Amino acid sequence: RHVTDLAGRHVVVSAGGTREPLDPVRFLGNRSSGKQGYALARTAAARGARVTLLSANSALPDPAGVDVVPVGTALELRDAVLKAAVDADAVVMAAAVADFRPAVYAPGKIKKKEGGAEPEPLELVRNPDILAELSGARPRAGQVVAGFAAETDDVLAHGRAKLAAKGCDLLVVNEVGERKTFGAEENEAVVLGADGSETTVPYGPKETLADTVWDLVAERFPE
Ligand code: C5P
């Protein structure tokens, strides 16, 4: 594939999964490997884009020619997204962002209770929804915003509702399963457009889904 249809464009991709610390040794996290987000970053770079990859706790090596910004928590990711999005033509949020974080961070390691007593309940507070905030704010005119949604049931109905709630242009909906989505090399998905479009991407490499996402993003660029 020798298209450079993204030349001159700046795209921002988030990848991996946020970790919300409880204390210096523990966190609340998720199973996102970062593979889909890294595939998006690689394919965009191959198509000529300047790529900023906001990487949340992924073990993957930095893709060549991509500006990688490491982030840990949802709040750090939010700051990094809002900063990078200022001059971005497109933002694709592939990271799995924690919806909640521990209400308090214990600066010292949390200890077991004396005498085998029951633990305190864990208090959580909401994290901001970065995708919804960005979709509402659009720091740059004509910016295309895409998100991902992993669902286990009624995938398309939940996807449509989520697309509307978030206000993004595209939502890549994938079903959580054994050989796909989290940690897998392959994926299958339906990409929903705010214009009502529906693009099915059959089971295959995450690069193929990534290229389809960039096709759909590029179609939505103004002019
Ligand atoms: O609501 P849900 O977590 O299923 O939405 C998934 C999409 O929203 C992903 O694109 C994810 O990156 C984004 N998201 C976000 N901020 C959150 C939660 C999810 O940007 N707090």
UniProtKB/TrEMBL annotation:
<feature type="binding site">
    <location>
        <begin position="128"/>
        <end position="131"/>
    </location>
    <ligand>
        <name>CTP</name>
    </ligand>
</feature>
<comment type="similarity">
    <text>In the C-terminal section; belongs to the PPC synthetase family.</text>
</comment>
<keyword id="KW-0288">FMN</keyword>
<keyword id="KW-0479">Metal-binding</keyword>
<comment type="function">
    <text>Catalyzes two sequential steps in the biosynthesis of coenzyme A. In the first step cysteine is conjugated to 4'-phosphopantothenate to form 4-phosphopantothenoylcysteine. In the second step the latter compound is decarboxylated to form 4'-phosphopantotheine.</text>
</comment>
<keyword id="KW-0210">Decarboxylase</keyword>
<feature type="region of interest" description="Phosphopantothenate--cysteine ligase">
    <location>
        <begin position="11"/>
        <end position="223"/>
    </location>
</feature>
<comment type="pathway">
    <text>Cofactor biosynthesis; coenzyme A biosynthesis; CoA from (R)-pantothenate: step 3/5.</text>
</comment>
<protein>
    <recommendedName>
        <fullName>Coenzyme A biosynthesis bifunctional protein CoaBC</fullName>
        <ecNumber>4.1.1.36</ecNumber>
        <ecNumber>6.3.2.5</ecNumber>
    </recommendedName>
</protein>
<keyword id="KW-0511">Multifunctional enzyme</keyword>
<feature type="binding site">
    <location>
        <position position="166"/>
    </location>
    <ligand>
        <name>CTP</name>
    </ligand>
</feature>
<feature type="domain" description="DNA/pantothenate metabolism flavoprotein C-terminal">
    <location>
        <begin position="6"/>
        <end position="219"/>
    </location>
</feature>
<comment type="function">
    <text>Catalyzes two steps in the biosynthesis of coenzyme A. In the first step cysteine is conjugated to 4'-phosphopantothenate to form 4-phosphopantothenoylcysteine, in the latter compound is decarboxylated to form 4'-phosphopantotheine.</text>
</comment>
<comment type="pathway">
    <text>Cofactor biosynthesis; coenzyme A biosynthesis; CoA from (R)-pantothenate: step 2/5.</text>
</comment>
<feature type="binding site">
    <location>
        <position position="99"/>
    </location>
    <ligand>
        <name>CTP</name>
    </ligand>
</feature>
<feature type="binding site">
    <location>
        <position position="109"/>
    </location>
    <ligand>
        <name>CTP</name>
    </ligand>
</feature>
<keyword id="KW-0436">Ligase</keyword>
<dbReference type="GO" id="GO:0016874">
    <property type="term" value="F:ligase activity"/>
</dbReference>
<feature type="binding site">
    <location>
        <position position="162"/>
    </location>
    <ligand>
        <name>CTP</name>
    </ligand>
</feature>
<comment type="similarity">
    <text>In the N-terminal section; belongs to the HFCD (homo-oligomeric flavin containing Cys decarboxylase) superfamily.</text>
</comment>
<feature type="binding site">
    <location>
        <position position="148"/>
    </location>
    <ligand>
        <name>CTP</name>
    </ligand>
</feature>
<keyword id="KW-0456">Lyase</keyword>
<keyword id="KW-0460">Magnesium</keyword>
<keyword id="KW-0285">Flavoprotein</keyword>
